[in-house]
Amino acid sequence: MDELEFRRRLFAQPTDKDDELLEFAKQSPERMALLKELRAFDKELHQAMNIDVPENLADKIILKQTMSEQPDKIKALSVNRKRKSWYLAAVASVAIAFSVVTYQLVAPPLSIGEHALAHVYHEMGSLESTERFNIAEVNNRLAQLGGQFKSLPGEVKYARFCNFKGQRGLHLVFESDFGPMTVFVVPSENKYLGDNYFSDDHFAGRVSHFPQGDTILVASAKAPLDEYQSRINESIQWL
């Protein structure tokens, strides 16, 4: 096993318990640190997706409906609540689960461009960051995703790992003549397709696909995307 295979397998399946992979990780403190970090991130991701139904939610829904439609039955509902609570909770849980599943089936998932825009809007504070990161600091993070930059397209003022469509990616913001620009670097396991160009009223973006990963640039709507994306693509190297 070499370094590239180790990282690809680990990013694809952080909980992999294969003896060869674990033995290779133990040979280096950096590999063990990466293993622990990815497993912690994977655990947080699963915990965030495991949402319990709030206690007494069924009772509250039924009580509210009864008060608005049948006030004369409130007293009887209160008397029988304890006896029927388990049944109502079960019904409500099924109803909520059915609603969530139905929504997921009907509503199409966000495309890579839509997700990138949503991510930028969710972390607008990153565009106003006053931090500064040199190329060594950026590459130290990017190396954990299997890449590095030969040079930077501008002064980097934000560099954080992020959850990009359920997978660990690197979120960068750098300064340019057209204002702050955002770059997401995402491993190739996502296998994103399409959305080479995307935009809304405020931002525009471009996606570049590589065998090892994708780079997604988001900038102001009037910025020269192709110019800056070319700089990024020429600078990035995959390990």
Describe this structure in words.
By secondary structure, the chain is of the alpha+beta class. The chain has eight helices and eight strands; from the N terminus they run αααααααβββββββαβ. The strands form two sheets. The chain has a six-stranded antiparallel β-sheet, sandwiched between helices. Strands 1-8 form a two-stranded antiparallel ribbon. β3 (167-174) and β4 form a beta hairpin. The longest helix has 33 residues, at 74-106. The protein is globular, with a radius of gyration of 24 Å. It starts with a helix and ends with a strand. Mean pLDDT is 76; it is low at 98-108.
Tell me what portion of residues adopts beta-strand conformation: 15-25%
CA-CA gap between termini:
14 Å
**Widest beta sheet: strand line-up:** 2-3-4-7-6-5
- CA-atom Rg in angstroms: 24 Å
Please state the structural category.
alpha+beta
Q: Provide the helix percentage.
A: 40-55%
How does the overall form come out from the CA principal axes?
globular
Characteristic key phrases:
single chain, 239 residues, alpha+beta, six-stranded antiparallel β-sheet, two-stranded antiparallel sheet, 8 helices, 48% helix
